[in-house]
Amino acid sequence: MRAFSELTADDWGKIALWGGLTVVAFIALAVVVFVLRRNLRSDDSRQTGGFDLIELQKMRDRGDIDEAEYKVLRTQAIASMMVETDKKH
Question: What is the C-alpha R_g of the chain?
Answer without folding.
Answer: 27
